[in-house]
Amino acid sequence: MKPNVTITTDGGCDPNPGVGAWAAILRYGNACKSIVGSECQTTNNRMEMTAIIEAFSSLNKPCRVTLRTDSRYCIWAIEAAKVEKKRNKWIRKGANLDLVQRLWAVVAIHDLSVIWIKGHNGDPDNEAVDALCTGKITEKRLKN
Fold first, then answer.
1. How many structural domains comprise the chain?
2. Which is nearest to 20 in space by CA: 49, 55, 57?
3. Which of 1, 35, 93, 144 is most buried, by the most CB atoms less than 10 A from its CB?
4. pLDDT tens track for 87-111
5. Range of the domain at 129
6. CATH number of the domain within which 9 lies
């Protein structure tokens, strides 16, 4: 039986494009793990996708994953993997295609359900990943 994991992600930039960060909280039973990273020059959408890619890449084996994200852009990208016509549209447009293809690859081995959550609306894990991103952006600015 595959383990049940809940992942909440966020990404952002200040300004957009500009210094960016991504974060994820992974929950499995009573265990909780946070991961976070940053880039000097990027976009909000790239950071949102990177958060999901990094979270799924940190899983050691196939899982039943509930992904919680406030990014409709990422949800559309994930849904496009399942429908050839939508997938071909992403490929033709080429926007962030490098990350979209990595996203498709890392989620493919898991049983995935996706939940859209409204950002900045009091959800504890969404607020936590947002705070991790904000902190990482500030840290990155201070180092540069």
1. 1
2. 49
3. 35
4. 888 888 878 999 999 999 999 999 9
5. 4-143
6. 3.30.420.10
